[in-house]
Amino acid sequence: MQEKISGRAFLRTWTGLIFVGLVCVVVSLYPTFRAERPAALFGAFLLFVLASGLLLRLLFTRCRNVQQKLARQSTEDPLTGLKNVRHFRRSLQLSIQRFHQHDQSFAVALLDLNDFEKYNRRLGHPGGDKVLRQVARCLDENSGDHDPPARYGGDEFILMLPGTTYQEAKRYVEQLCRSVEEAVFEVDCETVSLSMSAGIAFCPEDGESEQDIVRAADRNLHRAKSSGLSVFTSRTIDSAQDLLQSNRPLAVHSEGDYLDKVAKKTTEMYLLAKNDDLEIIKQTIAPDKMIQIQGADDESFEFFYLLEGEVLYPREDLVLKPGDFISVQSAQQEEYFKTLTQTTFLDVTTTAAFKSKQKQIRRLLSLNREVAKKDQQTDEHSRRLQELSRRTGEELGLSERALFSLGYASFLHDIGKAEVPASILSKPGELTEDEWEIIKQHPRWGRDLILEHLSSSLFERVAEIVYQHHERYDGRGYPRGLKGEEIAVEAQILATVDAYDAMLHDRPYRDAMPRQEALQELKQHKGKQFTPQVVEAFLRAEEEFYCSSCQQAEPADGNNKQ
């Protein structure tokens, strides 16, 4: 029997059963059956009772379904499918009761999408609603063992964190914010990248009533937005002035405490403390990475203290070790260092460095994710290019500045593919002439995206390298048909390494090529597609890369055929 019965079907069933019961009674009274009237009446009565029982069962089933539906609607947000604010308030009230009865503390986090209004204006409210549904799904999928956030209203979400410590709550909310930041949402073929801020309140630290706790979470959310931090709590100290105003001239923090964090695969940055004039940042960088140090225009000061690892200063051929430090004051000269091992240093600066670097890293990752969503191989391909390009540049004796620019260009070289339809990027057969013309535009689109989103003099050179990385030594490349020395040497390196790595891995239109065959292809096209000196330098770098202690960086996805 069906569990759900519509109102019209229910009415038809009720009418039919009454009709059957009446027919039975009328038939039992007919003269032919008069002699057997008692038995007929008993049969009709029994049938009527059975029919009524069936009707009551259907009635109870329908009432139960309606009740369950109403209960679900009363606690579920109709737009996102998450729990609504009514459900959250019930959970909060229960948590407050448990606190008073069993002294069980808890946290409340209020999360809000940053600058979401501009997407409502650009996409319209229907488009904005689609984004909110995708964000809700992202939060739900990344909730782990915790209950997913409830929708608080508009673009705000709220969640309960019962029985969590300060560090656990902060770490979990940061992870939720990061999951939204790292996701790429699509609405009507338009890519949307978002970030999220959050404020956390704790019971009993921020209050013991529903109003006090929610008000504290909302206050901390606004402080997160105004200070540029992704997560703000009542224990967050964002300036020396706050310390004085709150009569707390001394603050003691535990290991792992920080104000804000930003990370990618090769580096992590933690903002430990700040005031209006000073920031203290701890940064960890992977081995074999270039670091640029440059003073600002004004009376700035920056101090780097090496905590762990070893760093090479190429200009002086000097290796820095833990305890060594660097100071920079109002210097316009750029200096470059190279990490020899995983390195951690403390950066004390009078410039607002963290916010700028955080924004730069997030934008870099966002641009790369937009491409990776269309072309799954782009991310690992770019990282392999970074390593091989750097080694080739070192073989050619490139300056530290050139190597630094080449590293960024290798990471961003295919960023223009964000503008290319996925159907073209993943097409298994040959491209049509029109499709090929679209593909040939991606170096120009890449340059424009870099200049638009990464406003720094460093990225002007990076943008030009990306723009030229499909030019050929013989002048038959694109988009400008440059040849020979007209092509930047970093772009010549990138073109060679890019072609080699592409040959070594499967593509939609062909299978991977054995390594020795790919190397032979480079040699055959030396002086035509590829610059001779660059090919020779690459062959030396490739031999070291694949046949030395750096073998762990070699692609190992099964497509690399030796």
How are the elements arranged and paired?
Blueprint: H1 7-28, H2 37-75, H3 85-102, E1 106-113, H4 116-141, E2 150-153, E3 156-162, H5 166-182, E4 185-187, E5 190-192, E6 196-203, H6 210-227, E7 231-233, H7 240-245, E8 260-264, E9 267-274, E10 279-285, E11 290-293, E12 301-308, E13 311-313, E14 318-320, E15 325-329, E16 335-339, E17 343-349, H8 353-374, H9 378-395, H10 400-412, H11 422-425, H12 433-439, H13 442-453, H14 457-468, H15 489-503, H16 515-524, H17 532-547
Parallel strand pairs: 6-7
Antiparallel strand pairs: 1-3, 1-6, 2-3, 4-5, 8-9, 9-10, 10-17, 11-16, 12-15, 12-17, 13-14, 13-16
Helix pairs in contact: 1-2, 9-10, 9-15, 9-17, 10-14, 13-14, 14-15, 15-16
Would you mind describing this structure in some detail?
The protein is of the alpha+beta class. It is built from 17 helices and 17 strands. The chain has helices at 7-28, 37-75, 85-102, 116-141, 166-182, 210-227, 240-245, 353-374, 378-395, 400-412, 422-425, 433-439, 442-453, 457-468, 489-503, 515-524, 532-547; strands spanning 106-113, 150-153, 156-162, 185-187, 190-192, 196-203, 231-233, 260-264, 267-274, 279-285, 290-293, 301-308, 311-313, 318-320, 325-329, 335-339, 343-349. The strands form four sheets. A six-stranded antiparallel β-sheet has the order 8-9-10-17-12-15, with helices on one face. It has a five-stranded mixed β-sheet with strand order 2-3-1-6-7. A four-stranded antiparallel β-sheet has the order 11-16-13-14, with helices on one face. Strand 2 (150-153) and strand 3 form a beta hairpin. Helix 1 (7-28) packs antiparallel against helix 2 (37-75). The longest helix has 39 residues, at 37-75. The radius of gyration is 33 Å and the shape is flat. Residues 1-5, 238-247 and 553-562 have low confidence and may be disordered.
